[in-house]
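Researcher: Structure for this, please.
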Amino acid sequence: MLLKIQVEILSSEQKVRSLYLSIGNIKSAIRNDPSFHCWVNIGYIPLVEFLDAGHLNGVLQARLFHQSLRVILATLISTGRRRLIMSDATGAKRSCHPRVAVILAEYRDQTIINIARLGHSPTSTATHDQLGSADSQPPRTHQWIMTRLARASKIANPQDLQSYVSAARDLGLNGVDTPFWKDLPDYEPNLCIAPDIEHGLLRFCRDHVLEWVKNLVGASELDARFKVLQPIVGMRHFSGGISHLSCLTIQEDKDIQSVLLATISGATNINMAVMKSLRAIHDFAYLARSQLHSTVNLFQLQDHLQIFHATKEVFVETGAKKNNRGDIVPHFNIPNLACLHEFFLHIPQLGTSPQFCFNIGENSSQNIRSVPLNLDHHDIRDQMAEMCKAADIEERVQLMDRYITWLYPSQRALSDINAQEEGVLVGSRPDITDKRLRTTAILYALPDLMASVKELLDGIPVETQDTVNERPIDIWNRLEIHRFSDTGVQRSVLALVVEALPPSAFLPNGQNHCALVNASEVQLDYPHLNGK
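Model: Predicted structure, token format:
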């Protein structure tokens, strides 16, 4: 079983930790597709502020988190120890022993789950001063944590919060005395916390590696190099540079990584040592995102990380590694860097890491959470009640969907009734609005547009044709052609992206991804269309 924990904002004054549950038996391509609704919300844990708690507020929140999870996951203890008889899709009886195999969470929640002190590794015994070590530290096992908890309880009474927290932090703990997973069968803290590519690996590259590159090359020079890159379909073109971007998406992180090394090559302060280190961490990032691994790949992954650790001091020597005040930081005690060691342990045990990305399943809750916030202010009496009502309605629709699919196998589900074999998707807002057909022909330098539209509308009443020719139209410069898959693993596949930009001072002939070639003997007035 897979458990996902994320912080969600219900309103301006209310935050919760939402818990989502899925099953590892489902193929990852299906489980991670939001349209299949394979993640089910099983509870909310409020983020509260305790009165007069001071610096101990975080410890009390962590204890409330563990106490709440013990209640929510209580049934997994009894059924995990004994068994649960369940029917599969064919009606056969199966003896099931549910286990919590993977927990998806951000770093701060990972430390709360595994009773780790903030600033320490949540999956190993590495302390703050060992986070930048090239050698992986021993795993943070169930036995190791329980032994430390017993030792802390002997030093101070867990009810004496101030004394117990002080003793626990000296032992690398966070002040929680009874973890929710204490009695969960076969729970291993170091394995169940999956290394997160998006909030771990890519976040490390964005918040640290990219900042070091900016300090070496200079923000203005780096922006200038990104601006002159040739636009490529399917990748974002950073026409304004990247130094001003404060909140990057995961796809933008990947787009920057794909061109960063080539973009900064030859720049001032980018010597061979810097390029070797940057190449190593980029190779690690690409290989870690692979959907297929072998023993050779895992050794290569480890080699790339070792090369980065062996060469990372160049960023200190060149003055690139600075804090917000501009002071050089001589160490690499970064939690996300220490977590990179976990890929070698986790992949052989539980499979490739992309299936455990933290962002999967977020779309399942987005619509539900936005329902009460989109209502009129005077209609919002109880946001929680509105959310529960919205969740109940959505669940009923999904159940009816599945029932109709089961009852009439030849019929499509309600959510697929409008699906076609191929579809053309455009943006929600047109690029140009309220243009007449004649003006559009002049704008795009298409002298045959009027005649082509007339031929297209041949057979339609004349009055309708006149209406079409004179009615203002909206224009999109980009469209996507999607093909709907028959496998059921993915609802639609992007087949082609077509762009068409009108002539301008920057693009005198416009820009498009189509070519019209005249293969006949008749020569046209446009030489570039003659194919012979």
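Researcher: Any notable elements?
Model: The mean pLDDT is 80. The first strand starts at residue 2 and ends at 11.
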